[in-house]
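Morning run. Coffee first, then this:
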Amino acid sequence: MARIGGILICIIIVIMDAIAGILGIEAEINQNKGREMRVFIFECKEPVYAAYKLGIAAAALLAVSHALANLLGGCVCICSQVEFVRSSTNRQLASITLILSWVALVVGFSLLLSGALANANNRTSCGFARHHFLSFGGILCFVHGLLAVAYYVTATAAAWDETLPMVHREVKGSIEGTTQVVHE
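And here it is:
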């Protein structure tokens, strides 16, 4: 039953991030439909309210997906390099994917919000050429989905490894061909 619950959580995380990515890309498409005038590297554009709404919705879904993965995946805390080296492979992978998912969240969320807020005003704004913040933020939503699922899977595997009885760990090591005994 726990396996089915884990698979369901992974599917929910991927679906939420995929919808956020699609909304971000759709916001970019709506933004490109607005009127604009371009002179060399400067452009003036009218904000598109639909792009604003889609960008905010994508950022909100990205944040909820990240919170879900982190709350249900648990906390994998590694405070030093020595602790990192001594920890299990699942725990190491969980900490790496946790850091990478946070990076994807911060960058993607920032891109989505800055792209959405550029469309929040009612007046035309002029500046440098567009940087496609909304579409890049949408792409990072897909990347975040993969990293969040990888974090959830490795964090739950690390937690499961830590709950194994000592006898089972010794038998598991002898089956794999190692003679190392784990003492805690």
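Helices lie at 2-32, 49-73, 81-86, 89-117, 133-163, 166-175. Good start to the day.
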